[in-house]
Amino acid sequence: MCNIDDYIKDLVLYIKTTLDYRTEVTAFDKKQLADIPTAIGASFKFYNANLLDTPVTFAFCKNSSDVTPAQLQKQMQVVERRLNTTVIVLLDNVASYNLQRLVAQRVNFIIPQKQMFIPSLLLNLKKARNTGDDIKTFMTPIAQCMVLYHLQISSLSGMDLKELMNIFGISYSTANRAVRWLESQTIISSTGAKEKKICIDMDKKALWTKALPFFTNPVEKVLRTDAIIPGLMKSGVNALSAYSMINEENREHYAISKEALKTLDIEVDKNYGENVIEIWRYNPSILSKSGIVDRLSLYLSLKDSKDERIQIELDNMINEIKW
């Protein structure tokens, strides 16, 4: 572990240089530490601080190699509930393949001189914007599908709502809500009043990075079946095997929309069956015609896997994309 006093000095300097904001950092006293579960308190050193005029808690991770991003996220949720404040994890050294996972898990974190990712504060700053009561705080499935379509299939820039309705098979109101949500998070912009047209100025890699914290797992539900179903899209590890060096599983792994599932005359069960059927929040065939789900949706569906082999191959798959 690094010298923690030197680390805090570097942290304060990094915040001043990056945000032009001077913050004071003080260690928790015994009374404050009593509010932290013992198991979590043993792995972190906690500090009071103020960031952009917002009271926050810094949690210095004593050994980041001993905890996964998913575990970090759960631990910090516990601390935030106990303290009723925004908690930001302080990290010293993180493997490159874990940085994306931290972002995907929406863990607030700072690595001095390297990266500062604090979605909680960014979301709070945007709450004052009057975007309408029907604009939700999370990305809708269709909004996610639109961004992934732009990244992998064809540009949406210049398209109007009617064109989006045709491409994604959705109603005007659904298309309008998706576009307004993406605008509210500055992921896209639009031109025109009567005939709104999409404008996306970011390059694809920047857009992926910008949207990644808002993306959700496309898999809404998982069912089992003994049936072999020709024509369904391959998903899960079997799909990953098509994009990487990992081996296929012995069972079949399918992806299908909720609507398409209703047309199948097969028996399914929540727990029993040789093969897996993933019910997706959007139609996976919109993003791929190869019979295998698209790379980016696949990444989002598997990114929380605890299998290190899967995590390594997911990172390799993303790194090999020519944006």
SSE topology sketch:
Elements: H1 4-19, E1 26-27, H2 30-33, H3 38-41, E2 44-51, E3 54-61, H4 69-83, E4 86-90, H5 96-104, E5 109-111, E6 115-117, H6 119-126, H7 141-152, H8 161-168, H9 172-184, E7 189-191, E8 197-199, H10 204-211, E9 219-225, E10 233-234, H11 236-243, E11 253-257, H12 258-261, E12 275-280, H13 295-302, H14 308-319
Parallel strand pairs: 3-4, 4-5, 11-12
Antiparallel strand pairs: 1-2, 2-3, 5-6, 7-8, 9-12, 10-11
Helix pairs in contact: 7-9, 7-10, 8-9, 11-13, 13-14
Instruction: Count helical runs.
Output: 14
Instruction: Determine the structural class based on helices, strands and strand pairing.
Output: alpha/beta
**Terminus-to-terminus distance:** 37 Å
Instruction: Please indicate the percent range of residues in DSSP E strands (runs of 2 or more).
Output: 15-25%
Instruction: Please provide the ordered H/E string of secondary-structure elements.
Output: HEHHEEHEHEEHHHHEEHEEHEHEHH
CATH class of the largest domain: Alpha Beta
Rg, Cα atoms, Å: 22 Å
| CATH architectural label of the largest domain | 3-Layer(aba) Sandwich
Q: Give the biggest sheet.
A: 6 strands, mixed
* Total number of domains: 3
Q: Fraction of residues in helices? A: 25-40%
Mean pLDDT: 88
Number of strands: 12
What multimeric state do the chains show?
Answer: single chain
Major β-sheet strand ordering: 1-2-3-4-5-6
| Shape label | globular
Low-confidence stretches: 123-135
Q: What fold name stands as the CATH topology of the largest domain?
A: Trna Endonuclease, Chain: A, domain 1
Organism: Bacteroides ovatus
Protein name: MarR family transcriptional regulator
InterPro entries: WH_DNA-bd_sf
